[in-house]
Amino acid sequence: MRKAFILFYIITLYVFAEMAWWGFLLIKAEPDRRAMVLGEGAVFLFLVILGIFQMHKTLSRKEKLHHQQKNFLLSVTHELKSPLASIKLYLQTILKRDLDEEQRKSFINNSLKDIERLDDLVENMLLASKIENRSYSFPQTEFNFSELLTKVVDRLQIHSCSSQTIKACVTPNLYVKGDQIAITSVISNLIENAIKYSPACAEVLVSLVPQGDQILLEVADHGPGIPDGEKTRIFEKFYRIGSEDTRQTKGTGLGLYIVKKVLEMHQAQVSVSDNLPVGTKFEITFKQTHGN
């Protein structure tokens, strides 16, 4: 891409030099038509500059996308290696050591959680690809949103801390109509994001409450928060807050992109605000149905 920019600038300089030379020759050959040459030259120069500006924007956009895709591949590799290494260690320990039944069950359960983490990552990539290609139809069925949210929260609970990481406040038997698989991905991405950007063992609040004929889902964390200038950009594909050189948190940049696209297909609204005194809060409203 750098070579493309260098070639682009060389060609641009050549075009300007040629225009100036031919303009000089025309005026020298026919001095009485000087005004016409300068006028038409100015129009032509404006069009050339406009074209160059658009070309520069396109090349810059392509370079940025190339950089984001490169970082995405590196992130995916890291996201895959971490749970795989954990599963390998658990299984090797089970095979090599004489563990009691409780330890064995604990290691197997932890391995299953890592497998679910891998499954979520693969599902995210597949869903993002289908959304991008417009090959996913989002089948609409009515389901118990409260039960779904409770299951996702239970699965994502972190047990490495003495205190509960996710505090859930879920009103029972709230129903919505939509694609249960895609909405599961929305919930998982929001909660995992909140955990990822929160300090170790910090509490993440997840609540689901009715509001008239709607349902309000809130996911709030106590992390560093999101600058106001980036709140509108976090839903872009591959976009991640901060510099790639200094960023500490893992991620692919697909989670919030999927959240936004899935919610658009369900006519649901999402907003991002500061979770005072510190952190970020996501609020999502769904249209409530009444179950069968």
Protein model, in words:
It is a single chain. The protein has 292 residues and is an alpha+beta fold. It has three domains: 2-65; 82-133, Orthogonal Bundle (Helix Hairpins), CATH 1.10.287; 141-287, Histidine kinase-like ATPase, C-terminal domain (Heat Shock Protein 90). The protein is built from six helices and seven strands, in the order αααβαββαββαββ. The chain has a five-stranded mixed beta sheet with strand order 2-4-5-7-6, with helices on one face. β6 and β7 (280-287) form a beta hairpin. α2 (34-96) packs antiparallel against α3 (101-133) and α4 (145-156) packs parallel to α5 (180-196). The radius of gyration is 27 Å and the shape is elongated. The termini are far apart. Residues 243-247 have low confidence and may be disordered.
CATH topology of the largest domain: Heat Shock Protein 90
Task: Estimate nothing, just give the exact number of structural domains.
Answer: 3
| Beta-strand residue fraction | 5-15%
The poorly predicted ranges are: 243-247
Structural class: alpha+beta
Please give the CATH architecture of the largest domain. Answer: 2-Layer Sandwich
Q: What is the highest CATH level, the class of the largest domain?
A: Alpha Beta
Give the name of the CATH superfamily of the largest domain.
Histidine kinase-like ATPase, C-terminal domain
Q: Specify the number of helices.
A: 6
Quick one: overall form? elongated
Mean pLDDT across the residues is 79
Keywords for this structure?
292 residues, alpha+beta, Helix Hairpins, 5-stranded mixed sheet, two-stranded antiparallel ribbon
